[in-house]
């Protein structure tokens, strides 16, 4: 009988293509700050070239792609970046930049100082190509088994005169596309003229049009909680939320081209963040300014001329901060502070007036938080999901793809 032998694939850096390397770097690039010092957060951590070099060295080590002699030299060196391993990771960083996955600022990704000189300072950011790559991988991981929704548009509960026929026709109304149901139209004319009538003339009341599904466009703002509770208590809740966010962005950009998606981080304060910076966002500072986040999200959505507008909020904590009229941040981490809650619910009420539902994905199950989330959902006619970091991505993407919204004209 034939015997099949399996052995470890002996790869070298020359065999390593950059998409494979990006896949290996995914967890590092989407890091949340879980390993950072929670009492001394650095919002720019993970975006400097030194962090990229360390991540490259780590994935090479994990994949057993560093020769033993090179690894020993790096471990014995005072500055491992001046060793052969340092040259290897610089070369890989340069290839990533050359192939359009990263963009170095304040220094070249592949530059190296002379021996004994301090490494030139510099940072890097992910390009649109890298964001699409990571988004595709995240989408496949959290949603691949479920498939997507309707391609390019969101179905509604109403039917309209259109091209893609879905069933019975209806009388023509002013403004409808003239997609006539010919047989029903002539049937109406003949019934009106009578069996013995001389000749049949069409009139406006005879016209019947085919009905089709009406699709619409949506504007979405994702509110991501970056307060420190998202990485405390021995659990990293922010990394799965960020995976979901880049996956949702990829889904919208590829299957719903008429839609828009924007991202807002909320912590002590709140700010909009572009997609290019989302992957490298980290947790911090400490508190949860839900009111500030909703205020910015509502402002962004008011500028959008879309039929559907919605806020997707992912959080695990109670509102514990608010921005005062003078710009100062008021904080109270103990209990549901009446001042903070009042400011938050005023923003929720403003969303209700604007017709913006808030769909909340809560990663904690404290009774007070459950009651707060249920109140927000009831006020804005949104949905509340009490989920875990392990399945938040699936819940969000399923809800986005399958939600049916009635459009009133």
How would you describe this protein?
- The protein is of the alpha/beta class.
- The chain has 3 domains: 13-126, no CATH class; 135-153 and 217-402, von Willebrand factor, type A domain (Rossmann fold, 3-Layer(aba) Sandwich), CATH 3.40.50; 156-214, no CATH class.
- It contains 12 helices and 14 strands.
- The strands form 5 sheets. It has a 6-stranded mixed sheet, with helices on both faces.
- Helix 1 packs across helix 2 and helix 5 (128-143) crosses helix 7.
- The chain starts with 17 loop residues before the first helix and ends in a 7-residue tail after the last helix.
Quick structural gist:
With 409 residues, the chain is α/β, with parallel strands linked by helices. It has helices at 18-29, 49-62, 68-76, 84-98, 128-143, 182-193, 238-255, 275-278, 290-302, 338-353, 367-380, 392-402, and strands at residues 102-105, 123-126, 154-161, 170-171, 208-209, 211-216, 218-225, 260-266, 270-273, 308-315, 321-323, 329-331, 358-362, 384-386.
């Amino acid at each position: 009988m034939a015997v099949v032998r399996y052995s470890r694939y002996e790869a070298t850096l020359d065999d390593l293509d950059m998409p494979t390397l990006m896949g290996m770097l995914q967890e590092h690039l989407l890091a949340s700050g879980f390993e950072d010092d929670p009492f001394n957060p650095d919002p720019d951590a993970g975006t400097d070239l030194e962090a990229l070099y360390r991540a490259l060295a780590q994935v090479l080590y994990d994949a057993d792609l560093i020769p033993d002699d090179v690894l020993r030299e790096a471990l014995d060196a005072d500055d491992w970046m001046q060793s052969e391993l340092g040259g290897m990771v610089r070369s890989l960083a340069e290839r990533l930049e050359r192939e359009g996955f990263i963009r170095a600022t304040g220094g070249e990704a592949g530059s190296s100082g002379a021996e004994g000189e301090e490494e030139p300072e510099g940072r890097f950011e992910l390009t649109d190509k890298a964001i699409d790559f990571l988004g595709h991988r995240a989408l496949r991981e959290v949603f691949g088994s479920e498939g997507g929704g309707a391609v390019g548009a969101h179905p509604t509960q109403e039917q309209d005169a259109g091209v893609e026929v879905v069933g019975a026709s209806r009388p023509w109304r002013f403004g409808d596309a003239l997609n006539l149901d010919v047989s029903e139209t002539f049937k109406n004319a003949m019934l009106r003229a009578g069996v013995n009538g001389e000749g049949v003339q069409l009139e406006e009341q005879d016209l019947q049009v085919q009905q089709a599904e009406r699709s619409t466009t949506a504007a979405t703002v994702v509110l991501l909680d970056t307060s420190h509770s998202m990485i405390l208590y021995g659990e990293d809740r922010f990394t799965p939320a960020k995976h979901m966010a880049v996956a949702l962005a990829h889904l919208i950009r590829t299957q719903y081209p008429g839609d828009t998606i924007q991202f807002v981080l909320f912590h002590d304060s709140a700010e909009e963040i572009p997609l290019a910076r989302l992957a490298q966002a980290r947790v911090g500072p400490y508190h949860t300014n839900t009111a500030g986040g909703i205020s910015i999200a509502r402002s962004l959505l008011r500028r959008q001329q879309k039929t559907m507008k919605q806020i997707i909020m992912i959080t695990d904590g109670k509102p514990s901060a608010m921005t005062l009229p003078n710009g100062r941040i008021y904080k109270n981490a103990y209990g549901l502070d009446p001042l903070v809650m009042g400011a938050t619910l005023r923003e929720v009420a403003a969303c209700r007036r604007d017709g913006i539902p808030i769909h909340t994905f809560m990663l904690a199950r404290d009774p007070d938080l459950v009651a707060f989330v249920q109140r927000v959902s009831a006020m804005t006619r949104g949905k509340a999901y009490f989920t875990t970091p392990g399945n938040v991505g699936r819940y969000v993407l399923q809800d986005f793809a399958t939600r049916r919204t009635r459009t009133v004209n």
